[in-house]
Amino acid sequence: xxxxxxxGILYPASLPTFTRLPPPPALEDLVAWFWIPEWHIPHGRxxxxxxxxxxxxxxxxxxxxxxxxxxxxxxxHRDLMGRGWAVGALLLPAAVPAFTDDPEGLRDDALALxxxxxxxAVDERMxxxxxxxxxxxxxxxxEEADLTEDKADPGVRxxxxxxxxxxxxxxxxxxPTDEALLANRMVALIGGDSSVLRVEDAAELxxxxxxxxxxxxxxxxxxxxxxxxxxxxxxxxALRLRTEPETDLxxxxxxxxxxxxxxxANEFRQVLGFTPSGYRRSQPxx
Length: 286
What we know:
single chain, alpha+beta, Arc Repressor Mutant, subunit A, 2 domains, 10 helices, 9 strands, globular, disordered N terminus
């Protein structure tokens, strides 16, 4: 199944093409999902993509670079030009030790990995090959016909590219420990339960101490649990402002557990650089 998720993208209307793929069962403890943007920007134009990224690390393959991208603390952007693509894996905490013992040291930073063979293999899948039109109908064997169809089908090529990235990770990531799996559960709980407004709430639901959560977050995420909670609330606020333009800001702040509208506005401005009302006004008319 292919799904689309634009939760961390601040201006999804300007995104060229974005595909999200679920991980296979063998990677469910390591990868939240695979994400694949593709773009073909007319000559002389630039498409700026602004995001408030999920509070997690990513493994990213592009034509000229492979990298482990650490967790972010602020709004980011990338200017897209010409034709290009990326194949990324949003990593669960249990996958982080495959790349670093210190994700905190890679906040708002990236670690170049090289990996020329993997990059070449993924590039071959992503760019594909034009179907062989010299053979048609009865001149093609069944196997050749299937191959031609696969080369022409961008959905198939995306799945193949993500499979290559996932297999590389599966071959190199350590078997998740109980501690790593607990870190996964912590992130899933904080990211998916809007009733978790304090670190103590998460600790109680997971039946551990707040100090344990602080330690897990430092080792496997690189951001403190409180930052994970704040990021979830900001992403939800941004989503509501995009999809429910008539939402009352005071009511939105209350729904998301902010002390008041000013608290929401201050946190929005601190991380994103603009106010909730300014962000709402910047959205294209529906």
